[in-house]
Amino acid sequence: MDDLLRIDDGLSEEQRLIRDTVKKCVTDRVLPHVGDWFEEAVFPARELAPVLGSLGVLGMHLEGYGCAGLDAVSYGVACRELEAGDSGLRSFVSVQGSLAMFPIWKYGSAEQKEEWLPRMAAGEAIGCFGLTEPDHGSDPANMRTNAKQDSSGDWILNGAKMWITNGSIADVAVVWAQTEDGIRGFVVPSDTPGFSAPEIHKKLSLRASVTSSLYFDNVRLPASAVLPGVRGLKGPLSCLSEARYGILWGVVGAARACLESAVDYSKTRVQFDRPIGGFQLTQEKLAWMYVGVGQSQLTALHLGRLKDAGALTPQQVSFGKLANVRAALDIARQARSILGGNGITLEYPVIRHMNNLESVLTYEGTEEIHVLTLGRALTGLDAFH
Length: 385
Known about the structure:
The protein is of the alpha+beta class. It has three domains: 7-121, Orthogonal Bundle (Butyryl-Coa Dehydrogenase, subunit A, domain 1), CATH 1.10.540.10; 127-225, Butyryl-CoA Dehydrogenase, subunit A, domain 2; 234-379, Up-down Bundle (Butyryl-CoA Dehydrogenase, subunit A, domain 3). 51% of the residues lie in helices and 15% in strands. The protein is built from eleven helices and eleven strands. It has a four-stranded antiparallel β-sheet, covered by helices on one side. The chain has a three-stranded mixed β-sheet with strand order 3-6-7, covered by helices on one side. The chain has a two-stranded antiparallel ribbon with strand order 1-2. β4 and β5 form a beta hairpin. α4 (72-85) crosses α7 (234-268), α7 (234-268) runs antiparallel to α10 and α9 (314-339) packs antiparallel against α10. The radius of gyration is 21 Å and the shape is globular. The relative contact order is 0.12. The mean pLDDT is 96.
C-alpha cells in the first residue's frame, strides 16, 4: 500500500534500515505462524528471544552492556514493525527492554547491570516487571506487596502481582514493593525459593503472549537485590513512560496491518458484480482509516523527535498512548466490518489485532488514566482523588 503522506521519507538511512530489517524478520519468522500461536495460546519466547537479540531490538534504546544504544525514533520504528506482526511480539520486546532492562540500567547497581543486562540484550535471559496487583492496577501507590529487612540485612518479600507479561517464562523479575522507606524496586531471580508465576489462561486477547501472576511467599533476597538508584513511585512510573512510548509507535503497526488487509480485500471481494472497494461507503471507511494511521504516525514521529531531544514529558506520552491506541482500535473495527464474516477468522490478521488492541487500550495506563492525566495538565486540577 502506498504511503501517500511519505512520512517514512523523513527517516534517516539507518532508521529505514532498522525498519526493513525488523519487517523482514517479522515477515519471515512471525507472520507465517502467528495465527496458529494466537489460536493455540502459545508464544515461542525461548526460540524468538535470541533472534530478537541478534537484531539488537532488546533494550535497543539503552547504551552499553551489549545494548544497541540507538535513538528513540529508531526504537519506535522497530516497535511499529513488531506490532504489525502482533501486539504480543511487541509486548515481549517492550517488557524486556523498557520494563525489565530499563530500571536495572537506570537505577541498578554496577553488579546488577553486569549480571543481567548483557544476557537480556542477547535474549539469553528473559525479564518481567511486577507492578500491577490483583486489587491495585491504576493505583500503584497503595500496593500491598511489601518487603522488610530482617536482622541479617536480608529482605523478605511477600505479596502478589497480576497481568504480568513474560512472568512464567522469566529468568528475573523487577518487582516493586512497599518498604519502611517507601516503594522500592527489587531484582528477583525467578528461581528464588518462594517465588512462583502461574500462567493466566482462557484469554481472548494477547493470546500469542505469556501472561502470568506472580506470588512471593517469604522470598528471601540479599541486601544487594534492591535497586539503589530510586525510591518512591518515580521508579515504576518512569519505566511505564518508557513502555508507553513504545506502545504509541507499536499500535500504528497494528492499525496499518488492518488497513492493508482491508484495502487488499476490498479490491478482490466482488459483490453486485463489482469489487466492494469501488463502492462509496467502503472508500469512505478506507479513507478515514488511512487518515487515522497517518495522524497516529505523525504523532509518534513528533514525540520520538521530542524524546531524542530530551524534551518529552509524561503528559505528551499520555497524549500519544491515548490518541494512537484509540485510533488503532477504531481502525481495526472498521477493517473487520469491511471483511464481513471473513473478518472474524484467523485467515486474516484483523480480528487478532482487534482483540489484542482491547488489552493495549487498558494496559500501561487505562484510557481513563491518560484522560485524567491530560485533564490535570490542562486545568491544574487533580481529578484522581
